[in-house]
Amino acid sequence: MKLLMAASLIQTERPKQQVINEALQYEFCTTMNSFLLLLLSVLTVFAGSLLFVNAVEYIGRILNWSKSFLGAIISPLFTSFPELIVFATALLLADHVTGNEIAIGVIIGQPFMASSVAYGLLLFAIIPSVLLGKRKSKIMQVEGSLAYPYVFLSLLFPLLLLAWYLPRFFSYFLGIGLLASYVFYLKIMWKKNTEIVEEGEEKPFLSRFISPNSATVVQLALSLLLLLYGSNLLVESLSTISSSIGLNALTLSIIVIPLATIIPETITAMIWAYRGKDTLAIGSLVGEKVLYSTLYPGIALLLIPWALNGNAVMSIAFTVLISLIYAYYINRGKFPLYALSFGVVFFAFFTLIVL
């Protein structure tokens, strides 16, 4: 009888162990697939960024745009496209409360991630460039006019805190004011048309097959598709990996997803930094932040009620503080490498508090 009972136990335990093994194998395969998707997404965004940089530089040359205007105005309008899709989808398709929270989270989170992590990642482009002799100097040489976007950000971004405390009708006036300030910002950057994009022999990559102008249009459209597709893959893969290692939804929404969606502008800036085009590199990063302190919050304040939490307030404060530090160096026309790492310190501190 005991032998029969033992045999029956073995028979019942074996399927359980098989189920456990199959579950572990499935989880392992899912995680590995997510890492492969992560690699594919980064390569896709990199390819899109290469096409974009090549096309937008050609446009800047033929239209005689300055480096600061091209980097701080034109580039962010394209590289922020993935975040814009998230923002618009949250407002239009998500339910009322959740959609509002996601939209506000995108507006508040992106400038902080761009201020902290993106600048630090430029080091991974500049240092190899110096070692390979692609750059002549370790110090980034930038136009002093790029200090204006930092001043705009530092003055306007904290106003989003007022919309939280003051009555709802104040948000409408603030939203209109932020939209008007972006138009004013465009005029200022247009007038600072000092250092024109250099003439060069490099034409759009696709100009080997079609005319340069047609190639530019095709490359811009293709780069947008690649940036959007790569960003979506990036968010999906990072979300799966984060869930598999036990990160909760709050951490995912505050840290992981914003990190994923700044990849397009960061890789674009890294390509320019590697080539020694520092004004374009820094301009593309700060221009993104201005969009998220004027244009996008102006639209959001007109459409949805405004609500923040402690993490959002801290994010705004850190963003303004980092921007003031960067403005000091930009105004001098020189951005030392050690200054690029300042934002990473704030990001590490913020992450420790949130976690």
Mean pLDDT: 81
H/I helix tally: 16
Q: Assign the CATH class.
A: Mainly Alpha
Number of domains: 1
Largest sheet: 2 strands, antiparallel
Q: Kindly state the number of beta strands.
A: 2
Distance from N terminus to C terminus (CA atoms, Å) equals 55 Å
Briefly characterize the structure.
This protein has a single domain, classed as NCX, central ion-binding region (A middle domain of Talin 1, Up-down Bundle).
Short descriptors:
single chain; mainly alpha; A middle domain of Talin 1; two-stranded antiparallel sheet; 2 strands; 80% helix; globular
Write structural notes for this entry:
By secondary structure, the chain is mainly alpha-helical. It has one domain (2-354): NCX, central ion-binding region (A middle domain of Talin 1). The protein has helices at 2-62, 67-79, 81-92, 96-121, 123-131, 147-156, 159-165, 168-191, 212-244, 249-261, 263-274, 278-291, 295-303, 310-332, 337-340, 342-354, and strands at 140-141, 334-335. A two-stranded antiparallel ribbon has the order 1-2. It is globular.
